[in-house]
Specification:
Blueprint lengths: L16 E7 L4 H15 L4 E5 L5 H5 L7 E6 L2 E7 L4 H10 L1
Parallel strand pairs: 1-2
Antiparallel strand pairs: 1-3, 3-4
């Protein structure tokens, strides 16, 4: 990658961070968390939504057993995890503390 950070990763502190949001269309709590994740994305946080039914390999890779689960990656490594619904402020705190 030559040390150049793609524009999509130059968000909120210029660190290589990303939320992985594990969800499913049939999951009620996931549907409640979806708007919070969309808000975070609009606020400049990098969020990648992963549907556990469409992509079963990624949840296995991150040992996701329950949904919704949000995994915070920093430089490709897991640094935090939140299972279940939490308020937006909780996800912001996870991001800022990592």
């Amino acid at each position: 990658m030559g040390g150049v950070c793609p524009p999509s990763l130059r968000l909120k502190g210029n660190k290589m961070k990303e939320f992985l949001y594990f969800s499913a269309t049939w999951c009620g709590p996931c549907l409640q968390l979806g708007p919070i994740m969309n808000e975070l994305q609009r606020d400049g946080y990098k969020v990648r939504k992963i549907d556990v039914d469409s992509d079963p390999n990624t949840p296995s890779q991150y040992n996701v057993r329950n949904i919704p689960t949000v995994v915070l990656l920093k430089n490709g490594q897991e640094v935090a995890r939140q299972v279940g619904n939490q308020p937006k402020s909780r996800y912001i705190n996870l991001w800022e503390q990592s």
